[in-house]
Amino acid sequence: MKKTKKIILPLTISLVVIAALLVGCSSEVSQPACEHVWMEATCAAPKTCSECGTTEGDALEHTLCEADCDTPKTCSVCNGTVGDALGHEWQTDEKTGIVICVREGCDKVKDSEIPQDKNLILALSKIPVATPDMTTDELRDIVVETMKLQLTFGYRASYTEFDGQYGYYIKNLYSLYDGSDNLENLIIKFIDGEYYGGVPYMGNARGSFYRWIPFYDAQTGEMDWSPIIASRRIDWVDTSKDRVYPDVGSRIFGNSCSSACVWAWSRVTNEINNFWTSGWCPSRGFVPVGGFTIVSEDPDVYCKTNGPKVMYECYAQMLRGDGLVNSGHAIMIVADPVVVYNDDGTINPYKSYVLVAEQKATFLTDSPEYGGVDLYSPLNDSGETYRVMGNYPGVEVNGEITEMKWDFYTLYDEDYSPFTIPELAGTGTVEKSKVTFNHKNETITIDDIKSQTVSANYMISDVTFTVRDKDGSVVFEGYHVNDKTTPNKMKKCDLETAFTENIIYSDADYLYNNLIKYTDGTYTLEILCQLSTGELLSAYKGTLTE
Q: Which residues pair with 201 in a beta bridge?
């Protein structure tokens, strides 16, 4: 048998042969192995070499944020989504009839661009009515929430009965005045269809936001100014300047810095009796905070009479819901003060501060035509703009937070003195509201109404006349504003003025001309009073006859 001869190759040659067999017949020279440069795995891709694209392992799991009404589960890393949005869970609010989303964290009102906390009717319904058994902390919450809503509620101006070209003007007595007969720079124009925030400022006003309710669409947040524009022109005479400022009934819907505080306080008190800054003194029911000495009823002398040390100590004793006043302006404290002490135990007035809210005479920014800038509206996501008249800390404007932080030095330097009301000072008790109407018969005529005075132990903002048919359906509703000059005078309302001097409607006889249609004895009339407590109380209910 023929023997096979073994050929033994050196080890290095053997490895080359094996490598050649593995790559086949290619004559190409093999590339060196990649020195991987790894990129960390993400929720979109596994660990990946940036040089050759080789992957290792698996992609990470998404870091998902929970789905909400409008957005599905969304990864906070890659913005990828999983599943669907939850969709709104609509429910009708029992108090207001407004359809709102009840899912936690959602502030939507159906068919509206006004969120829940800025919807006048809905937010107002969430503020409780004060009761005698409430703590001072609970009362302070009511006062602060009322002040906040006055300054921040949103609305879209509307003129359903007009083409919008007339606009709506409100006097602004603190605007620049050039001394001429041109009053254009003393008025503010509300443009049809644009968004606004807060009760308009009026230098001579005692107006409350309760008067807005009949004209404010609770579902959409639209405020129809048509009845106001149509009201009879009522001029305001400034005797000190011998000048007449044209008005269109607007004074009944706006207020001032001081009266905004008074309306907020009047949710819980009926003891103070002045709308103006000059009347914040003990004789008008206001309680000094900290016990500073009052030598006169001029707010501008309180600080200098007592000196900085005393006043700083008084500022340190303020609590949310208290107010500060000088002769020209009034503000409200909306958070307890932050007090910083020096090493010697004295108060550092530069580092100690309070957060305040104020009703202002101008918008947060003016319109571009007057040198201002458009504000991005927090009321919607469509980029439309609106203007806010009042200042409240924490309100966001174009991504910037309104701070409203005033230090003790500034307060003293500008002669601000701290006051509160008896109920917040612990020296007064909330009184249960009541309304008095002398007519007790089951039937009533228009002449009966005209002879009546409706009275209450709190301010009466306005009176509503509601007529219902035999099925209980409302067939007519008319309003009358109680436009008196002091809180005490506003506790009474002479109804004869509702028929002879009604300033809401262009026709002074509007109520009479409508009520006379329902005097055949088959209709029920109810007279309701809107009180400063937030309550709408019935003064009378009976059959309307001739």
A: 255
Judge if pTM exceeds 0.90.
no
435-545 is classed CATH 2.40.50: no
CA distance 236 to 247: 7
The Cα 14–Cα 24 span in angstroms is 15
3-class SS shares of the chain: helix, strand, coil, % to 5: 25, 25, 55
Q: What CA–CA distances, in Å, run from 471 to 300, 498, 542, 545?
A: 60, 27, 15, 17
Report the percent of the chain where pLDDT is more than 70. 78
Rounded-to-integer distance, Cα 413 and Cα 404, Å:
17
What's at 67, amino acid-wise?
A: A
Instruction: Render pLDDT for 303-333 as a digit per residue (tens, 0 to 9).
Output: 999 999 999 999 999 999 999 999 889 999 9
Domain with CATH 2.60.40 in the chain: 435-545
b/e burial code for range 332-346 (CB count within 10 A of at least 16 → b): bbbbebebeeeeeee
DSSP track, 521-538:
EEEEEEEEEEETTS-EEE
Of 534, 146, 138, which is closest to residue 357 (Cα–Cα)? Answer: 146
Q: State the CB neighbour count (10 A cutoff) for residue 21.
A: 9
Whole-angstrom distance between the N-terminal and C-terminal Cα of the chain? 145
More confident residue, 76 or 20: 76
C-alpha–C-alpha distance, residues 272 and 322, integer Å: 13
Phi-psi map region of 480: left, alpha, beta (phi>0 left; psi -120 to 50 alpha): beta
In sequence order, the 6+-apart residues with CB closer than 8 A to the CB of 448 are: 439, 441
Q: Give the integer Cα–Cα distance in Å for 41 and 28.
A: 34
